[in-house]
Amino acid sequence: MRKKLTTALVALGTAASTVLVAGGSAQGHGYSQAPTSRQAYCADGTVSNCGAIQWEPQSVEGLKGFPAAGPADGKICSAGNNTFAALDDPRGGDWPTTQLRPGQGYTFKWKMTAPHRTTDFRYYITKDGWDPTKPLTRADLEPQPFMTVHMGGRQPAFNETHQGSVPTGKSGRHLILGVWTVHDTANAFYSCADVTF
């Protein structure tokens, strides 16, 4: 009897922890797929040794209010979440890049697993002379986003797209930071994409 009871309790505990783990990842949220973000490259196996982000590409969430608030310099790509610190590692400037032409029309794409009510999406780009071998700081970015998509509290689609143009006058390697600001929480989602003009 005692053995049957122990077996039943172990099975119940295993089932409960499976539900908790599945529930934790199901609460993930979203990330940029075009241009391809660092977390997308980790999730699809293009980049290895990424740690937990390979299973949680949609979960790069931190405080909103960027650039006045939000994650600290050097921790922007991970949204200040130490679990995802691999995203802040510049890897010697060797992250894969998306090829772009200055001024080209472009479809920016996000994959959502939980499309929260949204204030806006903002896209920032690095300044000329940015050093891709160092972790991203605010001083590395142009002070204003080159594109803002206002949502007014609406929910984005599960496959959210934004039509826009990439900045003119850029050449060489740069980084585009996408910030998805949630309307009804204190948080935003951060997505770093390495690009080459």
Describe this structure in words.
By secondary structure, the chain is an alpha+beta fold. Strands 2, 3, 5, 6, 8 and 9 form a six-stranded mixed β-sheet that branches. Strands 1-4-7 form a three-stranded antiparallel β-sheet, with no helix packed on it. It has a single domain, classed as Distorted Sandwich (Coagulation Factor XIII, Chain A, domain 1), CATH 2.70.50. A hairpin with a 4-residue loop joins strand 8 (173-182) and strand 9 (187-196). The protein has helices spanning 2-26, 38-43; strands at residues 30-34, 61-63, 98-99, 105-112, 118-125, 147-150, 159-165, 173-182, 187-196. Helix content is 16%, strand content 29%. The protein starts with a helix and ends with a strand. It is built from two helices and nine strands; from the N terminus they run H-E-H-E-E-E-E-E-E-E-E.
Question: Which characteristics define this entry?
Answer:
6-stranded mixed beta sheet; about 15% helix; about 200 residues; disordered N terminus; 2 helices; Coagulation Factor XIII, Chain A, domain 1; alpha+beta; globular; 3-stranded antiparallel beta sheet
Number of DSSP-assigned strands = 9
Describe the main β-sheet briefly: 6 strands, mixed
Q: What distance lies between the first and last C-alpha atoms, to the nearest angstrom? A: 70 Å
Highest CATH level, the class: Mainly Beta
Structural class: alpha+beta
CATH homologous superfamily designation? chitin-binding protein cbp21
Low-pLDDT stretches are 3-28
CATH topology name, in short, is Coagulation Factor XIII, Chain A, domain 1
